[in-house]
Specification:
- The protein is α+β, with helices and mostly antiparallel strands.
- It folds into two domains: about 100 residues, SMI1/KNR4-like (3-Layer(aba) Sandwich); about 160 residues, Serine Threonine Protein Phosphatase 5, Tetratricopeptide repeat.
- The protein is about 45% helix and about 10% strand.
- It has 13 helices and six strands.
- The longest helix has 15 residues.
- It is globular and about 60 Å long.
Amino acid sequence: MFLPRLIIELESLLSGPLPAALRSFLARRPQGTALGHFRAYPRALVLAQYRERINTGTDPLLLPVGRNTDGELLVHLKEESVWLESEGKHTKVADNFTAWLKAQRALHRQANDKKLVRAARAGDVARVERLLRRGTDINEQDATGNTPLMAALLAWQYEASSLLLKHQPDLSIADASGHTALMWAAYRNQPLLVQQMIAQGADVHARTASGEGLLYFAVTGPRSVTEGGGKGSREVVEILITAGLRLTEPQLPGDRPVGDLGVEAEEGLRAWLAGQ
């Protein structure tokens, strides 16, 4: 097996070679691995986190491999067990990394088997209507937390989005990263849908887990060629402001306002925001 340079560097810090299963996992670009709430670290971060553990005198037998909503996940290099580190405490979550990873993948496939989410993402309006008539949960979520409405918006399926919105979905639901349906409607430059969601109680002050707020999505969302290209929607920004969102509110990581955006926002829209 070809070993990337970062794995060779990592093994140079260890008292012995990586367990075969862990080496194989890291060799297959784990930064592309998202299994529900588990997010695998890129190899560079695995190496950096392990170096930090060594430098701070933390247990060198525990290798950080990723995170979930509860904390950091580590693999014991001799036992190959999986551990959760949260608030300074370590809890064993599985006896074997290979079996744990297999179980996570099975749960991920099961969580993604959401018929209404799939129909909404495909824009299959007739199937969406049938599933809703049969009582399918309009608020079901896939492995990453997307509801049918979120899935439709992300896939540019606005007819399906409008239909779902008429059935009063719970607009307070967020995905695993804290995104709400209103954020994706703002990002997709859909003023009518944004207005309807706000009228149905969607929170204009919501922010993602990393700190992005609604104005960030309204300003950075790419416009399609038919919309004239470019990024952002002044109309959506105005709707959000009318709904009570202030330009001075934290909208970016680090509790910064949207005015701190650089090239992520178009120059014209940045100038307009600065004049408000």
